[in-house]
Design goal:
This protein is α/β, with parallel strands linked by helices. The protein has ten helices and nine strands. Helix 7 links the parallel strand 5 and strand 6. Helix 1 packs across helix 10, helix 3 packs parallel to helix 5 and helix 5 packs parallel to helix 7. Bound molecules: nicotinamide-adenine-dinucleotide (NAD).
Length: 253
């Protein structure tokens, strides 16, 4: 197994399960030291146990990414522990339930909460970690979605704004040589999306893919590892789609 991240420090938000846990184990397998963050401590503990069983080094942190003080306190802890941060994966997000269906009936409080977690937190966290990220210099990956091309849901709107935020961050962080890209996954099986999307809806979305394949965390993790590696040193300011060719992406369909 290639060890592209031996001795590197990698922070993954939303690593209590699903794609976040996939990233954590993928980077650990290639030698990284993981910093795990989530609000779900039970899930984080499972991820940490899995990493330790692999012999990986890691730490776990409770942080509510909707709360600016929480983000700042967490970033201060990380900066103290790690003067150099090589990779920041802004994977945490609200994706299921009302955010994926509700639109007209959502009040300001819900909209602002969704934007806080899905769109603004990636910037606030990266900004609070700018010093350790500059040391490498590091790489930032934001977790977008193919739904960022579907503005008919609050989820799609927050992820569309995250695409724009990614472009803004790529310009801003380039001053320190920090690369910023986003991954826009299609339908990737995780426990949360299996629980959150009715089976008939899941099958219908999947049947629309050009390639009749079943997407899983492995596909997204492989792309994340590449984008975070030195092989991608010339790539920044990109939204990279990984969706088996899905028509949700508009004109490309
Ligand atoms: N699975 C898919 O098909 C798919 C497709 C496109 C995009 N995505 C994106 O990938 C990411 C992970 O999705 P998943 O399917 O693994 O879902 P998931 O629900 O398992 O992962 C999201 C994680 O974010 C955490 N989180 C939510 N709010 C938080 C907060 N305020 N502070 C800290 N952590 C918080 C959750 O506890 C959870 O562990 C999300 O950003 C999602 O929008 C997933």
């Amino acid at each position: 197994m290639e060890q592209r991240f031996a001795g590197k420090i990698v922070l993954v938000t939303g690593s209590a399960g699903g794609l976040g846990r996939g990233f954590a184990t993928g980077f650990a397998r290639e030698g990284a030291h993981l910093v795990l963050a989530d609000v779900n401590m039970a899930g984080l503990q499972e991820t940490q146990d899995e990493l330790r069983a692999m012999g990986a080094q890691c730490s776990m942190h409770r942080v509510d990414l909707a709360v600016e003080n929480d983000i700042e306190a967490f970033a201060a802890d990380v900066s103290r522990l790690h003067p150099r941060l090589d990779v920041l994966i802004n994977n945490a997000g609200l994706a299921y339930g009302e955010i994926a269906y509700g639109f007209e009936a959502l009040g300001q409080e819900k909209w602002l909460h969704y934007f806080a977690v899905n769109t603004v937190a990636p910037l606030l966290l990266a900004q609070a970690l700018r010093t350790p990220l500059s040391a490498g210099p590091g790489v930032i990956i934001n977790q977008s979605s193919m739904a960022s091309y579907l503005p008919g849901t609050a989820y799609g709107v927050t992820k569309a704004a995250l695409n724009a935020m990614t472009y803004g961050m790529a310009r801003s962080f380039a001053n320190q040589g920090i690369r910023v890209n986003a991954i826009a996954p299609g339908l990737m099986e995780t426990p949360a999306n299996r629980a959150g999307i009715p089976p008939e809806h899941y099958d219908r979305i999947q049947s629309m893919q050009f390639l009749k394949l079943h997407g899983s965390a492995t596909d997204i993790v492989a792309l994340g590892l590449f984008l975070a590696s030195d092989d991608a040193r010339f790539i920044t300011n990109e939204i990279v789609h990984c969706d088996a060719g899905h028509p949700f992406r508009g004109y490309r369909g």
